[in-house]
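Hi V.,

You were right to ask for the full record rather than a summary. Here it is.
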Amino acid sequence: MEPGRAGATAIAPQQGSGFERGGTPRARASWRGSHRRLALIGLWTAIAVTSGEPGKDTGYRLAFAHRIWTGQPVMPPGLTEWEECFVPGRHGELHLTWGAGQVLVLLPFDILATKAVNALHLAPAPSARLRTALITCLTFGLIAAGILSSALWLLRLLGFSERESVVGALGLQFATTALTYTQYNQENSLSLLLLLFGMACHLDWLERNRRRSLLAGAAALGFALLVRLTCALDLATVGGMVLALSWGQKGIRDPQFRARVLRYAAVMVPVTLLFLALDRLYQWIRFGSVWTTYFGLAMDHTRRLHPELPAAYPATTPIASGIWRTLTEPHRSIFLFDPLLIVTIGVAILGWSRLWRRAKVALAALFLLLAGYLLVHAPLYDWATVGASWGFRYVLLPVQMLGLLALPLVMRLWNELRTWARFALATATSFALLVQLQSILLWRAVEDGQMVYWKRDVVVIWQRFLNVTALALGKFEAWGFSFPAFSRRYGTLNFVPFLFREYVSPTVARAAQVAWVAAVVLLVALAVQTVRRASPDMRADSDAR
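Predicted structure:
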C-alpha cells in the first residue's frame, strides 16, 4: 500500500514505559541510562545558557524568599518602580501579587547559596552577583533536568519508543521556547515541569494502577495552582485525559469505568482541595481575605495608580481580536516563536488515521488546553505595550507540550509520509531550532527597545537574526539598529562568562569563555550520544502490531 493512503493500518504504540517486570535487563538499563543522560543534559544546558540574572519577576520572588528566613526588607527605601508589582496588605505591609509556588521553590536554594557565598567574604557587589548566579543555576538547572526526565517518561507512557522519546525530549529543550525560559527564569519552566510530571504520573497510574503515582501526580498539579491559578486548566485537561482513556465501549454503564472514576476522585479531590486551601491561607496571610484573588487585587491596585486606565482593564481586548493577534502578531505569534507547533499540526493532520488511541487523546487534550489558555489570556493582554519577553509567555505552556509531540510523531510516521511532507516538516523543524538558539544569544530586551524607539512593531525573530548578524559583523550602528538606551549589556553574549568579565581579570575571563565553548561542544556530543544509545525498540513495536 502506498504511504499516506487512506485505509492504511494504524501504527501500534510501543508497549510500556520500560520498567515493567517483563522488560529485559538490557532494556531497563538502556531506559535508566537515557533518563540519567537527559537529566544531565538539562542541568548542563541550564548552567551553560544562564545569564546569572533572574529577571525582574523572579528577582521579586527571590527577594521575598530571602525575606522569609532573614527578615530583610524586600523593597529598598525610595524605590518606586516596584509599586505596580506589590499591593498593600494586612497592616499596610507590601506583598507580591503572585502565587507562592516559585517563592517556595527558590527558598531552599537561596539559603544554600547565601551561606556558601557569605563564607567567601567577598565585596558586596560581586557577592550579590555570585549569589544570584548560584541560585539561578541550582534552581533552574534542576528544573530543566526534571523537565527532560519527565518528558522522556511521558512520551514512553504515550506509546513512543525510547529513541523517539529521547528525540522528543531534546526537541522540547532545544527547539521550543522551553530553551528561552531555561535562560529567562520566569515561572514558565516550573509550570512545564509540574504539568509534564503530573501527566506522566496519571498515565502511569492508568497503566499500572499504582496509587503512589496518582498521589504524586495530584500533588504536582495541585502545587501548580500555587504557581498560577490558571493552572487549573492543566488539572482539568489531565483529568479529561484520564476519563477519555478509561472510557470503554459500555461507557458510564461499565462498572470498571465507574470504579476507576471513584478511585481517581478519592485521591484527586482531597489533594486538590488541600492545595486550594493553602492558596487561600496564603491569600489571607497577605491580604486578610480568602475570597479575593491576587490577580483581582493587583488589577485594582494598578487602576488606582493609573486612573486613566479604562474600567474594564485588563480585559481591554475583544476575545476574537486577542486570539487572532496571539496567532498572527509579529512580536507575539505562537507560530513564529514556536514553529514546532506547525510541525505538530501538520503531522497530526497528515497521519491522524495512523495514530493509536493514547496519541490521539493526548493531541486532542493539548489542543483543547491551548484553546483554554487562549480564551483566558488573549483578552487580558495589553497589546498596546511591548513587554520584554520572548513570545506570548502566558500561553506558551500548551504550545510547548504540543511541541514535545512533534518530533516523535514525525519519526513514527516518517515512512508513511510523501516526499513533499518530509521536506516541509524537516524545514519547519530546522527553522524551530534556529529560532530558539538565536533567542538565547542576546538579552531579550534588545528588540523591545528597538520597537519602542522606532514606534512600530517588527517581526521579532527576524530582527533578532539581523541584530545577531550586525553585532557579529560590527555593523550594528551602520545598519541603523542602535537606539538611545542601547548599552554594552545589549550587545554582549547573554551568558555568564561574557557578562561577568568586568568582575574578573582579562585572563580569567578568557579562560572562562574558552571553558564555556568546550562545555557547549561536549553538551552537543552528549546529546548525540544519548540519541544513538537509546533503543529503537523495533522488536517491541513488531510484537505490538
